[in-house]
Amino acid sequence: MDIKKFSHFRFAVLAAIFTFVLQSAAGQAPGVPNSEEIVSKVNEYMSAAEPIDRFSGTILVARDGKVIVSKGYGMANYEWGIPNTPQTVFRLGSITKQFTSAAIMLLQERGKLNVGDAACKYISDCPPAWEPITIKQLLSHTAGIPNYTSFPDFAKKAIMPVSTGELLAEYKSKPLDFAPGEKYNYSNSGYHLLGLIIEKASGKSYTDFLQDNIFTPLGMKQTGYDSHENLIKWRAAGYARKGDGFVNAAYMDMLIPYAAGALYSTTGDLLLWDQALYTEKLLTRKSLDEMFTPVKGNYAYGWGVGKRGNHASISHGGGIYGFATHIARYPDDRVTVVVLSNVEGASAGAVSSNLSAIAFGEPYTLPKERKAIVLPSQTLDKYVGEYQLLPNATITVTNEAGKLFMLLTGRQQNLELFPESENDFFLKVVDAQIKFETDASGKVTRLIFKQGGSVIPAPKIK
After folding, report:
1. Which residues of the chain register pLDDT less than 50?
2. 94 Cβ contact partners less than 8 Å away, ≥ 6 residues apart
3. How far apart are CA 376 and CA 397, in angstroms?
């Protein structure tokens, strides 16, 4: 997203772009910690994140392809008491998109397609409005195709078996959000469509093409397309927060996320992927440069490209039922941070940002316990209304018997907002905060939504 916007496959989780700083091979730059110092501070940070944020998952910090820290926290399966380890397998959510974009680039190199091609060249019965849409616009979220995960009935349909063709028909029937190429708006529909284009151009299934052309050549033995039927060794169960504990995450048919969010992997396999992108083992330098060049805002092809402080970053987050993920690459510094969590709405982006700061000897924030206070019901009344979070996503705030709740477009469950002060609130089911802002007269004008390092203003519209 402009990665300070919705990025993941998931529907409440936000992704953010973060970056890292280089330490030279010849010696440590002044003020930059050595590996032992990084390990010590990471241990301190995660020792706070595990009990306070209830972090469950695995992390990896590496420099020049060499692992500095690789550890698991919490449980891969709470019912069996099986802990997370570096070998634990997680659903990736929207980190899938970078593999989809790489597949498109491979097919372009082989002359099977061109990113300038009309998408309709590979899709039968295209709506007339789609005729100007190019593959490049799908890759960069500038096609204008409405995001199917934001449809109001998405949560109900996510549990139902569906074919890729049936899902295509679902969003093909909707009008475009804007003229193709006009603006950026994150859309899982575009990446779903890219999966179909990969199959048409390659003559293989999306799963087989990625396995044969990316995962197997790179030795990514614990990466693939997730499935409820297949037996996947060391796979983590997915959870959601409820109160002070966890519940099993909602079911999702894995044909629904498809090329937008259906892959699984480990931190170690993602390091193999990261390192391959510094070479021409998979793609030519020309293709890599194109894939990492932003089109509108900070979004390139399946990656957010920006800076963290003075350090260039290439990153993406992911979120899907039961999981939250983030990968951050700092190419000038050859530093990699991967955070994979098996808790829906976990602050994977914030953890990634803080681990990045630790690696560079920069300031970072230790997790802290949030304590709720009690506010009069009449105070809460002024926050009631509808707020425009994104063009196709709103937050509806209600006061129910003296408690404030929010409902996000496409979700069915109200989430309680707990006050820390008169204007500051936090959620318990995900690591997110909301700040309400007022004008000089005290009228609420907007809210600020914070999650995983992202900060999104949402004006009050009703």
Report:
1. 1-30
2. 7, 8, 9, 10, 15, 188, 260, 261, 316, 317, 318, 319, 320
3. 16
